[in-house]
Amino acid sequence: MAVQHPETVRRLALVSTGYASDGFYADMRTQQAQVGAAMTDMMKDTPMYKSYVAVAPRPQDFPKLLDQLGAHMRKDYDYSADVAKLKMPVMLVFGDSDMYRPEHEVKFYQMLGGGLKDAGWMRENLSQNRLAILPNRTHYDVFFAPELTAVTLPFLNGETKVKTWDEVISETE
Fold it and tell me: Which end of the chain has less Cβ packing within 10 Å, N or C?
């Protein structure tokens, strides 16, 4: 939606996502290739399964969901050409133990125009985009992390107030 209808998206937070399938660790691609209905019993103790059966009108369709997810995950993708179309402020958030390689996320941030040079004393080179790496978080628990809300909500609300040097110094006196 942000690429096809950017006029409808004021700000965008992307959590634990990459722009290309080569951003995953290699062993993740192997695991993703195995996702399908045959994993249903193994998934019954996971938050994904429990959440699904709590809200799905047909909980018995969980194996179908796994088949569809598996088919999707087995496909290669590369949206790097679309990254340049994201003109609104974008925040990338991922865990430091995520399924995506950190260098992939940093490259994603750089493709958005961030992290290409020092922001400067007066923040004159600060990108409109943000990169947040949440410590001790994985792809599987980052969505439940209280710090996710603390980091993304001010960004989504457009809160950019940063203390001036004078304010920082006066607080230390």
Answer: C
**Residue in 93, 88, 108 with CA at minimum distance from that of residue 5:** 88
Task: Write down the pTM of the prediction.
Answer: 0.86
3-state class (DSSP) for residue 10 = coil
Q: Where do the CATH 3.40.50.1820 domains begin and end in the chain? A: 6-24+78-167
Q: What is the CATH number of domain 6-24+78-167?
A: 3.40.50.1820
Residue 12: C-alpha distances to residues 49, 77, 86 (Å):
27, 20, 9
Query: Edge-to-edge, what's the strand order for the sheet holding 130-138?
Result: 12-15, 90-97, 130-138
